[in-house]
Amino acid sequence: MGAGHTGAARTAARSRAWRLAVLLTTGASFGCVGAPAAELPARDANPRWGIGLSALPNLGLEAAYERPLGRRGDVDWASDAHVAYQFIDDETFADDGNPAADGWLQAGVALRGRIRQNEVRDWTFRFGPEWFEARGAPNIVDEPGHYFGVRVGAGFETRIGRCVVGPELSLLAVGGEGEFRMVPQLVWGLRFGL
User: Which one of 71, 104, 167, 183 has the largest count of C-beta atoms within 10 Å of its C-beta?
Assistant: First the structure.
């Protein structure tokens, strides 16, 4: 089998994995959130915009948009779209002898749940398809290129007026460029409703 066949097989496998992740997220959103979902309190019914500090494998920023879908039991469900660009490498802070990594561009969609603990604090979790492009001499993955997979995460948020702030730790299970990796990621975000 030639190199062209191997590249085509990898592209086909990536495409199948991406479609499966999108289907699972979409199916879960209809299965978990479909009618009859209870209405959300007024303060939680508006879309939220967000910005956050994104860490691992590099350091950068994440922007997000969250649209509430409804309440099912004790869980407030929302759809989430996010993009991140990690442009600061760990070599900026400590020289470990490895070459400096170039930027890391990332995007995904997710089904996001929020479990209210009290009037101030919520537990959060998310899952959905994710894509990223590792450039140059990347950290964690061996080869630069495009990677596709699934992101699962959990965290907590603290309410401050119309804003929520808090950390979320995620794990990306991704494949691409002939390898499969588990990539940890931490986002400390601020989301605000309009």
Answer: 104
Domain boundaries, the chain: 3-193
CATH 2.40.160.20 at 3-193, yes or no: yes
* CA 52 centroid distance within chain: 12
Q: Which residues pair with 78 in a beta bridge?
A: 68, 112
As separate numbers, helices (DSSP H) first and strands (DSSP E) second, the chain gives 1, 8
Residue 153 and residue 109 in contact, taking contact as beta carbons nearer than 8 Å: no
Q: How does 141-167 read in b/e, with b if 16+ C-beta sit within 10 Å?
A: beebbebbbbbebebbbebeeeebbbb
Cα dihedral 171/175/178/181 (nearest 10): 10
Within 10 angstroms of residue 10's Cβ, the number of other Cβ atoms is 15
Question: For the segment 94-139, what is each residue's pLDDT rounded down to a tens digit?
Answer: 777 777 788 999 999 999 999 988 889 999 999 999 999 999 888 8
